[in-house]
Design goal:
Layout (H helix, E strand, L loop, with lengths): L6 H16 L7 H8 L3 H13 L3 E4 L5 E4 L8 H9 L15 H25 L2 H14 L7
Length: 149
């Protein structure tokens, strides 16, 4: 079973890319994000509650209410989004399962788990919502042909 993002993370990323694109001039209603992406508004409400607590989005009250990004898209790292939605995304340190040599567990921790976590951190902390938005807009502009160059 390959590792998968949770539904909450997947929908959170989709909704944030949509919000980044569509909130340039005014706030965006949650329902319109839900409609465009086929996500239940109730579910999206929960996702946005987590994003709001982390300051990633802010809500605008009133009859024309909706959401805006809480800061510039280039200041919002994917790491920050995942932490808001998942808690910690890193592979956790595990106690050794049995009576194996503690040196073996240490080796696995150092060479496998720590290395993977560091690589993930490097990618996710340096990748921003602005990068995702830009890539999405390029894909839309050039169609899906970019992948065959």
């Amino acid at each position: 079973e390959p590792m998968k993002f949770s539904k909450k993370t997947r929908y959170g990323l989709i909704a944030l890319i949509d919000l980044a694109v569509n909130s340039k001039y005014e706030q965006v209603a949650l329902n319109s994000i839900a409609d465009r992406n086929g996500i239940s508004p109730q579910y999206l409400e929960q996702v946005f509650a987590s994003l709001r607590r982390a300051g990633i989005v802010k809500s605008v009250k009133g009859s024309q209410g909706g959401y805006l990004l809480g800061q510039n898209a280039d200041k919002i790292s994917v790491a920050k989004i995942l932490e808001a939605l998942e808690g910690d995304y890193r592979i956790e340190r595990e106690a050794s399962p049995g009576k194996d040599d503690p040196g073996i567990s240490e080796t696995i921790q150092k060479l496998v788990i720590d290395e993977v976590n560091e690589a993930m951190d490097n990618i996710l902390q340096n990748l921003t919502l602005a990068d995702l938005e830009e890539n999405y807009l390029d894909n839309k502009k050039y169609g899906q042909h970019m992948y065959y160059i």
